[in-house]
Amino acid sequence: MSRRPRSPRTAVSAVLIALACLLLPFGTLAAWAAYGLTDTGRYVTTMAPLASDPAVRDAVADTVGEGILREAARDGLQPPAEVAPFVHDAVLSFTRTPAFHAGWDAANEATHQSVMAALRDDRADDVTVDLTPVAARVQHRLAADRLPFAESVPATHARVTVLPARDLAALRKGYRVLDVAGFWLPLTAVALAVTGIAVAACRRRALTATALGTALGGAFLGLAVAVGRRLTLADLADRRYRPAAAAVYDALTATLRTASWLLLVLGLAVAGGVWGIRYVRVRRAPPAGLRRCRRPLPTHPPDSVGRRGPPPPGAPPRPPRHSPTHPPDSVGHK
After folding, report:
1. Which DSSP category does 302 fall into?
2. Lower CB density within 10 Å: C or N end of the chain?
């Protein structure tokens, strides 16, 4: 028995749904980068809890402490090696104060604004952040601890380069692509999915395929986030900063991970719902043989020859029913 060829509507629907499911994870990633990372207020709100993270506080203490000792050595003052732990402890103690939390938010806001301004403009300078206020507060804390060289530590020119000028050209192109793709990719994916379901010969199967493709796209997006985290941490040369980098990466990608789980759960829920509705309908429907044999109940008892009900008005009288094996004789006897 040959299989019936598929209609062109089925082929068109399959292509549209496949494209929609392929674009969905990329559209989610582009929307997250375009609207989640480029907004300064959201970025500062996302980074604010990291001021209380132990790994981040240790990284800040190491970076600022080394910078203080380096600035002191540059000005001709060479602190002894035994002083380094005291500097680290002083900075670490400062990171537990409300002043550090305020400075952390201010530094993140200034850094993000500088980066976004560099991406939107055509300047070719390095993007730097000024840590002078933080260094000045640490200097006062060292002086309060009565360290002999604390007053001689300079608190100026404490700027950190966060984005080299040589990387700005490539980042500007990527930012402009994400700015466009973050809006159009999700919209295109939704339009393709709706069109593919609408033109399908069997919309139930098309909806199930779209839901399963959405769940697969969510799983792929979650896997990409996990692989990106592993590669990001592997690229760090200094292993001391990996816990802090992991905390920052997890904070920035929290929305993306939530979106991947949402796509996965939503796709599986819709596919399961469609299957469940079909299963209930099949269970409630009678078998095909019973549907063919079902007849309406009689409203009149059968007559002497087995016929039910009177003939309709104006119809000719029905001939008597005879046995096919014994035809009647001339007088009507069988």
Report:
1. B
2. N
The tokens describing 30, both together, are 């582009």
| Cα dihedral: 231, 237, 238, 243 (round 10) | -10
The DSSP call for residue 326 is S
Cα–Cα distance for residue pair 66/88, rounded to 1 Å: 8
Both tokens of residue 38? Answer: 């480029």
Strand partners, 181: none
Tokens 């839901």 sit on residue? 211
Long-range contacts of residues 245-251, Cβ cutoff 8 Å, at least 24 apart: 246/55, 247/50, 247/53, 247/55, 247/56, 248/47, 248/50, 248/56, 251/46, 251/47, 251/49, 251/50
295: exposed, middle or buried (Cβ count in 10 Å: 0-12, 13-18, 19+): exposed
CA–CA distance, 332 with 30 (Å, rounded to integer): 93
* 302 touches 236 (CB < 8 A): no
Cα–Cα distance measured from residue 95 to residue 141, given in angstroms and rounded to the nearest whole number: 11
Q: DSSP secondary-structure letter at 237?
A: S
Query: What is the DSSP track for 238-277?
Result: -GGGHHHHHHHHHHHTHHHHHHHHHHHHHHHHHHHHHHHH
The mean-pLDDT minimum among 3-12, 65-74, 200-209, 323-332 falls in 323-332
pTM tops 0.85, yes or no: no
Residue 227's CB is within 10 A of a number of other CB atoms, namely: 10
Largest CA distance in the chain: 144
Alpha-helix residue ranges (DSSP H) falling in 48-202? 54-74, 83-94, 98-120, 132-144, 168-199
Tens digits of per-residue pLDDT, 196-253?
A: 999 998 889 999 999 999 999 999 999 999 999 999 888 887 788 889 889 999 999 9
